[in-house]
Structure formats: C-alpha cells, structure tokens
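Q: Here's a chain of 134 amino acids. Please give me its 3D structure as tokens.
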Amino acid sequence: MREASRLAVIGVGGVLGALSRAGVSQIFGQDRLELGDQSANFPWATLAINLSGAFLIGIAAVALITDNSSYRKPFLVTGVLGGFTTFSALALEAVDLFDQGLWVTALVYLIVTVGAGLLAVNIGVRATRRIVRT
C-alpha cells in the first residue's frame, strides 16, 4: 500500500473513532460521585471509552496478527481505535512488554507515562489559568 493511501485509511478510521468517542461521551455524560464530604463529576465516559478501547485493541492485535491485508490494521488499530482512545495503545504496549518478561520496563513505562501525562495536564492547566487571569 502506498503511504498516501495508508494515511488516508488511517484518517478515515480516525474520524470514525473520534465521532464514536463523542457519541459515547454524550450517552454517558458526567455523573456526580460522592467522595466523603465532597462530590465531583466522575469521568464515566472517559473510563468506559478507555477501557473498551483497550479491550478492543487487544482483540484487534490478536485477530489481525496474521492478517496480510495492507489496510485493515492501520484502519482499525491506528485509525479507529487511535481516534477513539489513546489509552488502548498504552495498554497494548504495556501488555506486550509484560508478555516479553520485561516487567521493570513495563512498570517504568506505565509510571512514567501516567505520571508525565498528569504532570503535563497540570502544567497546561496552571499555565493557561495564569494566562487567562492576566
């Protein structure tokens, strides 16, 4: 498959994945979660999307392992599921590392990815709040 065709297939899949994510988010919405004497909106939609995406990418990885088609895997894994969630890719990569017996690498990868992700969000939120206030 030519690179331009491959990118087009990924793009179409990405659009479908992103639209699916938006649809699931609208269906689930945000519910209140009581935590002691505080309550907060709990991201049920994001949780459902990330967990189902991880489940689906696990299925796709196994189902497509012997697929010689040049478009199915880029369309489904990179496009649809990549557009639906990026957590599924993280989960698949961690499972691959665990399956290879690289426990320390897998744990470091998970800790660094989650920690750095939280840190990046925190920095972005704080920086944006400062810019908006000034």
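Q: Can you summarize the key feature?
A: The beta strands are 31-35, 38-42.
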